[in-house]
Amino acid sequence: MASRSRKVSLVVVGRALKPHGLQGWIRLEVLSENPHRFTPGNSFILEGREKGERLLLEKVGEDRVGLKAKFLGIDSRQDAERIAGRTLFVTPEETGEPPPYRLWEHQVLGLEVRTRDGCVLGQVVEVMETGANDVLVVEGEGEYLIPAIAQVIKGVDRESGVITIEPLPGLLEL
Q1: Which domains, ranges and CATH numbers included, belong to the chain?
Q2: pTM for the full model?
Q3: pLDDT number for residue 133
Q4: What phi and psi, each to the nearest 5 degrees, are found at residue 123?
Q5: In angstroms, rounded to a whole number, what is the distance separating the alpha carbons of residues 112 and 114?
Q6: How many Å apart are CA 25 and CA 14, to the nearest integer?
Q7: Which of 62, 69, 52 is nearest to 17 (CA)?
């Protein structure tokens, strides 16, 4: 899920799916690559509470279907039903560092994309996951689909807000 704005205020990390049992446990859909994201003690912003209190992860468990969580103050099935279907967020500062040679999606949204010879293509407005590799959707004078692979991406300078690419033959033809 990507934003088309330059500034990313919240990052989606999961979704509360449905209650599990009677004591406030809920099944989760994990939408984060950070292996430590769903560790007891971490807190989350619940969709609809962007300006308010956070959910504190009290316990986490796995079963044959996936991850289940118990949040502090969610103590009954009825409590869990009230948060079911809602998205869990963190702030960009809470995402942690990505694995080596990777960037989180929110770190590239809004960056300017240029070729090595200085031609400005536009800004990254979305990151599409294709299975094989991510694809940067760049909008400027036209729309470009830039594969996020080492043969194309030659540099990412987050300080200056620029991604430098070496386009493969035919990549920039509209």
Answers
A1: 11-94 (2.40.30.60), 105-165 (2.30.30.240)
A2: 0.61
A3: 82
A4: -115, 150
A5: 7
A6: 15
A7: 69
Closest CA to 108 of 93, 92, 91, 126: 126
Q: What is residue 7's DSSP assignment? A: S
CA distance 88 to 117: 41
Distance CA 75, CA 148 (A): 43
Quote the CA–CA distance of 174 and 172 in Å, as a whole number: 6
Given this model, what pLDDT does residue 53 score? Answer: 77
3-state secondary structure (DSSP) of residue 24: coil
- Closest residue by Cα to residue 46 from 86, 6, 97, 99: 86
Q: Which residues of the chain have pLDDT under 70?
A: 1-8, 50, 52, 95-103, 174
Task: Give the per-residue pLDDT at 2.
Answer: 39
